[in-house]
Amino acid sequence: MQQMDDPPSLPVGTEVSAKYKGAFCEAKVSKVVRNIKVKVAYKQGLGSGIVSDDAIKAPTGQLRVGAVVEVRHPDRKELVEATITKIQDCSQYTVVFDDGDITTLRRTGSNQWKLIAMRLGFTPCTVSVMNLVKQAYKKFLQPYGDFIRKLGCSC
């Protein structure tokens, strides 16, 4: 599940931390096969459903949880008003690691940082706490990992 400030999908060029060969390593997105699934609650008592983001009519940048949008209803085949209740990125990302390795992965969101923060004892685990954990990693642990890789070790 996406955090409130996360984009529905990551653009090419985004720097990410990806799990590869058992460890998290820094990488850059080089290709995206976009596949966004959106759960919506239809207005007018039409229930709820899961649709692709291309079935949603919304202003650019407005695809987020809680937004009221127009959605092509699967039975009525017309646009109806609905509220977005969940967004899931099922896209496939091809990433290039710092050492040149290339692999294709799926996005797990920022749950990695939430899990780390909770294991460190930070409760409640808010977005700001997750950002602090991520910043601490980049400031202290990532340089150590870079040092280890320069010695000839890899993730």
TrEMBL record:
The protein's name in its UniProt record: GM18723
Any one of the GO CC terms: nucleus
InterPro entries: ARID/SWI1_ChromRemod, ARID_dom_sf
Amino-acid biosynthesis as UniProt keyword: no
Keyword Nucleus among UniProt keywords: yes
Keyword entries, A-Z: Nucleus
Any one Gene Ontology molecular-function term assigned to this protein's record: transcription cis-regulatory region binding
Native source organism of the sequence: Drosophila sechellia (Fruit fly)
Gene Ontology biological process terms, A to Z: regulation of transcription by RNA polymerase II
